[in-house]
Write a structure and sequence with these properties.
It is a single chain. The protein is an alpha+beta fold. The protein has three helices and four strands, in the order βαααβββ. Strands 1-2-3-4 form a four-stranded antiparallel β-sheet.
Length: about 100
């Protein structure tokens, strides 16, 4: 397995991986929440929100993204935000292919 810096050409792969990885989480959240509250958070559906969030994270200047590659397939990614004022790092987004 290799860990490499994100490249723009990987965006669609990362977005697809993110939907597969987060689908069980959002299914669980939907079952646990009042449906009207859920729809107020995700009026266009969670997938639209997730795709927008991933694209945003991958293009933010203050966030670094790395991808995990195994057998030439993208199997995960992590986005990290470094806070220079506190010398702390934050895992901003992470996903691993469920397969």
């Amino acid at each position: 397995m290799r860990i490499e810096p994100y490249e723009d050409s990987q965006l669609d792969t990362i977005k697809s991986l993110s939907l597969r990885a987060w689908s069980p989480v959002f299914d669980s959240i939907q079952k646990a929440m009042d449906i009207e509250v859920y729809h107020s958070f995700y009026p266009d559906g969670w997938r639209v929100s997730q795709l927008n969030a991933v694209e945003s994270v991958c293009t933010m200047a203050d966030i670094k993204v790395w991808v995990a590659i195994d057998s030439n397939s993208t199997v995960g990614f992590v986005a990290v935000k470094l806070h220079s004022e506190s010398s702390m790092g934050e895992i901003y987004m992470i996903a691993v292919d469920p397969d």
